[in-house]
Structures are given as structure tokens and as C-alpha cells.
UniProtKB/TrEMBL annotation:
Pfam families the record matches: BaxI_1
Residue span of region Disordered: 1-26
Identification of the protein by name: Membrane protein
Keywords annotated in UniProt: Membrane, Transmembrane, Transmembrane helix
Protein source organism: Amycolatopsis taiwanensis
PANTHER family: CONSERVED TRANSMEMBRANE PROTEIN-RELATED (PTHR41282:SF1)
Transmembrane segments: 57-81, 87-108, 120-138, 144-166, 178-199, 211-234, 246-263
């Protein structure tokens, strides 16, 4: 499989080629170049392991997103009520716990490289709680910002799906390497900025000024292009006939990109409202 910027999709096992008893599988729509092992005969799937389809990915992603939205809304309502009562300690504690739980679950999923519906939903729920709490606090300062961030994230997701399906941007090895490099570079800069800020050094990347706005726009663009890699990898999983249960792993990968994109859009909107 082609490499991807999303660590969730790296080094996935190759499934059964989608040309056996189930017939060819239909992917997200963009023609695939295929690597040297694409279409190679693989071990046939068992009776209970039908190959995954687009519907599997859509349903699993929808369930994951729905879980995050439900927990997020409840968390936001609770966070707002606590903030109004000037009880910030519980809110901060919930944010830290949910963030750590989400991080641990994501690392387990990434390193195990095995699909798991319960773990994917738990990850989505934990991230929903974290995003809901932080969105509630932002909402107290900037009314309406959470809805704007949700709509912005949905808009970027839909736009990139259309771009992928129409083939307006081809996911080539060269583009893949560029996106992976840009993602790694952005991650290093954000980590460096965090470390230096703890030491009292301000790089200006998160200060809310012009440089911070530009950096946020660049990061949003990188996250958006990561959707192309996610779609392409899910497409290859479908075309190679991987068992249906792997749709949970595709959903997990898409959720990680969505969480990153939402946070960055929320941050950018807060910068713009400060101007």
C-alpha cells in the first residue's frame, strides 16, 4: 500500500484481492495507480470475512462521528455550566483525562494495527468529550464559534471528498511524500513552539497575531490534504478486498484527521475574532 501521512494507516496488512467470489469491489471513485503488489492473489477470506465496501466505511465513520458529536454536545453543555459557576477545576480535569484517554487509545490502535469497533468508538467518545469541553469554553468567549468550526470542518471534508472523487487532484507518490513531509514539519514546529513557550520563548505561532493566522491557515491546508491520503488508503483497502471489519480502522484514521482539523479551525476562528 502507498504510504500516508496519517499514522493510523501505515503498514496495514494486505487483504484479499477484490476479484474473488465476491466480485470486484468499488472504491471511492478515483482511479488507482496500484503498486507492484496490487492485484496479487492473496489468501482467501473466510466465510465471515466478506470484503469491506464503501458503505462499511461510511457507516462506521458515521457511527464514530455521531459518538463524538453526542459526547461533545453533552461535554460542552456541562463545561459551560461549570464555567458560569466559576468551577474551572473540574472542566480542566475532564479535558486532561479525555485527552490522555484519547491519546492512549489512538497509540494502541496505531501500534496494534488491528481494527476494533469498541476502541474506535471509545476513541471518538473521548475526543468528543475533549473537543466539547474546549469548545464550550471558547463558546463562552466567542458565542457561535463552535458551530462555525463544525460547519468549517464539514465543509473542508466534503470539499476534499469531491476533489478526490472527481480526480481533480491525483494522489500520486510525489504528492503523498509532499503531504507527509508537510505534516511532519508542521508537527515539529508545533512541538517546538510548545516547548519554547514553556521556557518563556514566544515564536508567535500561537499568539493570535498575523503570523499565527498564517500558520493556522497553512496547518488547515495540510490537514485538508491529509483527507486525500485517508480517502486513497480507504479506497485501496476496499480494492484489495480487506475484511469488512477493517472499515473500523478506516473510520479511526478519518476521525484523527477530523479532530486535528476541527481544533485548528477553532483556533483560527478565535484569532480572527480577536482582530
Amino acid at each position: 500500500m502507498r504510504s500516508t501521512g496519517n499514522p493510523a494507516f501505515r503498514n496495514l496488512p494486505v487483504g484479499r484481492a477484490g476479484h474473488g467470489q465476491y466480485g470486484p469491489n468499488v472504491g471511492f471513485g478515483q482511479p488507482l495507480g496500484g503498486g507492484p503488489d496490487y492485484g496479487m492473489p492473496q489468501a482467501p477470506a473466510g466465510p465471515a470475512e466478506r470484503p469491506m465496501t464503501v458503505d462499511d466505511v461510511v457507516i462506521k465513520t458515521g457511527l464514530s462521528l455521531g459518538t463524538a458529536l453526542v459526547t461533545g454536545v453533552l461535554s460542552a453543555i456541562w463545561a459551560i455550566s461549570q464555567a458560569e459557576a466559576r468551577a474551572m477545576g473540574p472542566v480542566v480535569g475532564l479535558m486532561v483525562v479525555s485527552l490522555v484517554v484519547g491519546l492512549v487509545l489512538s497509540l494502541v490502535m496505531i501500534f496494534r494495527q488491528k481494527p476494533s469497533g469498541p476502541m474506535t468508538l471509545l476513541y471518538s467518545g473521548a475526543e468528543g468529550i475533549f473537543l466539547g469541553a474546549i469548545s464550550g469554553l471558547f463558546e463562552m468567549i466567542y458565542p457561535g464559534i463552535a458551530l462555525q468550526a463544525i460547519l468549517g470542518t464539514a465543509g473542508v471534508f466534503i470539499a476534499m471528498l469531491v476533489v478526490y472523487r472527481t480526480g481533480a487532484v491525483k494522489v500520486t507518490p510525489r504528492l503523498t511524500k509532499w503531504i507527509i513531509g508537510a505534516t511532519a514539519g508542521a508537527a515539529i514546529l508545533m512541538l517546538l513552539n510548545l516547548v519554547l513557550s514553556l521556557l518563556g520563548v514566544n515564536m508567535g505561532l500561537r499568539s493570535g497575531g498575523t503570523l499565527a493566522i498564517i500558520f493556522s491557515l497553512v496547518v488547515i491546508g495540510i490537514a485538508a490534504f491529509n483527507f486525500l491520503l485517508d480517502f486513497d488508503m480507504a479506497d485501496r483497502m476496499i480494492r484489495e478486498g480487506m475484511p469488512a471489519k477493517w472499515a473500523w480502522f478506516a473510520a479511526f484514521g478519518l476521525m484523527t484527521t477530523m479532530v486535528w482539523l476541527y481544533l485548528e479551525i477553532l483556533r483560527l476562528l478565535s484569532y480572527l475574532q480577536n482582530d
